[in-house]
Amino acid sequence: xxxxxxxxxxxxxxxxxxxxxxxxxxRDPGVGExxxxxxxxxxxxxxxxxxxxxxTGPPGSGKSTMADSLTQLWREQGLRVxxxxxxxxxxxxxxxxxxxxxxxxxxxxxxxxxxxSMGARGHLGGVSLATRGAVRLLDALGWEMVxxxxxxxxxxxxxxxxxxxxxxxxxTPGAGDGVQVxxxxxxxxxxxxxxxxxxxxGADRVTRDLRDMLRLSTPKAGWKVPVVATVxxxxxxxxxxxAAAIAAHRSHLEVSGELSExxxxxxxxxxxELVSARARAFATDLLAGGAPxxxxxxxxxxxxxxxxxxxxxRFHNHGLGTGAAELSTVxxxx
Length: 334
Known about the structure:
The chain has helices at residues 6-10, 14-25, 31-41, 63-76, 129-140, 177-184, 203-216, 239-256, 258-287, 304-319, 324-333, and strands at 51-56, 81-87, 113-119, 145-149, 166-171, 192-195, 227-229. By secondary structure, the protein is an alpha/beta fold. The protein has 3 domains: 1-43; 48-256, 3-Layer(aba) Sandwich (Rossmann fold); 261-333, no CATH class. The chain is globular. 35% of the residues are buried.
């Protein structure tokens, strides 16, 4: 079991933060106690929750460059920035294929920037339970900006809504880009659109198509989704306008009361994911030996529904009496 020093975490020690996230990834049973100790020791001067920004879009749209430019801008404003780059998993080690050492090298010595590559761990949407736990830890430690960059784009990328306060969908000029956005259905998850590489031919058309499409869509609780043209590779290239749109969306969430609802929804989804993961692990272990009392010899005549009910019954009995008090504590803290 990994052990971390709470005092070092609160002082902003990024090495200790990396160890704490490793503890979360390993699903160490001491994670809950660690978070409780952090909240108990957290200075009263730290009141605001972290602003969690989801950055998603198709491969090659420039998300990493965008993350780098946003980080630079936020650091100029005196904000601490944590970047969680969720990458595909290695099929051999389970770790993230793309390491954080190949990203954002100019921030490597900045103690106000924390960069971590995390594996998607089989989640189609690219947001794992470990990522959710890391966001919760960074919030407890008072990091002002948390940027979650996800893999790919599509229907499965709806998961980013369950993690981020503001979702930025990055697209680029090119054949079929506008149609791709419609097919993916991501107009429903985007709080902000960024048309990156806006110096390329066709950028004006993509921007216009997006704005036309948004005019036909249902408004998001009083928020008009902006479309911002950017050239992230050129530093400021519209990124300042994007950061302003992100800040405006945060203000909208706070004033409308939607922020607290999103935080509550995030907690509910995380609890459901944890229950699902634990039930799956229990079922896998239970059935690993064949479980003849649950599964018949003739697999073709098996009743998976009945077997699942029996497994869930055993899972319930396995954890009986351990959940009620803990659930009450979680509800009170939320």
